[in-house]
Amino acid sequence: MMRLASLSIGAALLAACSPGGGDDAPAGDAATDAATRAGTTSAPGAAATDTPPATGGRPGSAMSGTVSDLKGDVSGLNIRVTDTATIVDLPADALFEFDKADLTSGAEAELGKAAELIRKAPPGAIEVIGHSDAKGDDAYNLRLSERRARTVADWFADQVGVRQRTFRVSGKGETEPIAPNQTADGKDDAAGRARNRRVEVILPR
């Protein structure tokens, strides 16, 4: 009897230690299966979690993170990001009176936001480019866009933390619109022309 009892106990121990023995899977595999069904993967034995893996300490891509940071610092500015530059579009209507290149009393609020970006930008020249809409004489629009760009660059050159930067100034007139100057049926597009009247401040990345 003692021999049979020992054999029974040994068989039970072998069954318990065998792979796949018993009805319950190990806790680590259960967590992994649950995570897989939930669309995530956990290391064996680790608790499943809904938190996505960190990417550089901030969710999202580096570009989206940069854009978010910029918008957080300078809300209200129109910012475009490329592989090599950060482009700030300053609406000319917010900076200048109609047909003039002198800054309005409210222009400093917009320029101050752009100056803050320049302070944070990597080393390199800052481009300031004036643009106009397509209404009026081409040559006149070119000269006006150049004068407006120069006015903006001169303002930056007086600001602490900005004046030491190198500025490249130019005007493009109506040659590089970012919106239609006319509607599809040939009518004036006032909103589109307003977007085209701008000064671009291009920062290195």
Can you walk through the features of this model?
This protein is α+β, with helices and mostly antiparallel strands. It has seven helices and five strands. A five-stranded mixed sheet has the order 1-2-5-3-4. The N terminus is likely disordered.
CATH evolutionary superfamily of the largest domain: OmpA-like domain
Question: Sheet with the most strands?
Answer: 5 strands, mixed
Helix content: 40-55%
Average residue-wise pLDDT: 75
**CATH fold node name of the largest domain:** 60s Ribosomal Protein L30, Chain: A
Based on the coordinates given, report the CATH architecture of the largest domain: 2-Layer Sandwich
Roughly how many Å is the radius of gyration?
A: 32 Å
What separation lies between the terminal Cα atoms?
84 Å
How many structural domains does the protein architecture include?
A: 2
Shape: globular
H/E series: HHHEEHHEHEHE
Please report the number of helical segments.
Answer: 7
**Structural class, from secondary structure content?**
alpha+beta
Secondary-structure map with pairings?
Elements: H1 2-17, H2 27-37, H3 62-73, E1 78-81, E2 85-91, H4 92-95, H5 107-120, E3 126-131, H6 138-156, E4 167-171, H7 190-196, E5 198-204
Parallel strand pairs: 3-4
Antiparallel strand pairs: 1-2, 2-5, 3-5
Keywords:
205 residues, alpha+beta, 60s Ribosomal Protein L30, Chain: A, 2 domains, 7 helices, 5 strands
How would you summarize what this structure contains?
The chain contains 7 helices and 5 strands. The protein is α+β, with helices and mostly antiparallel strands and 205 residues long.
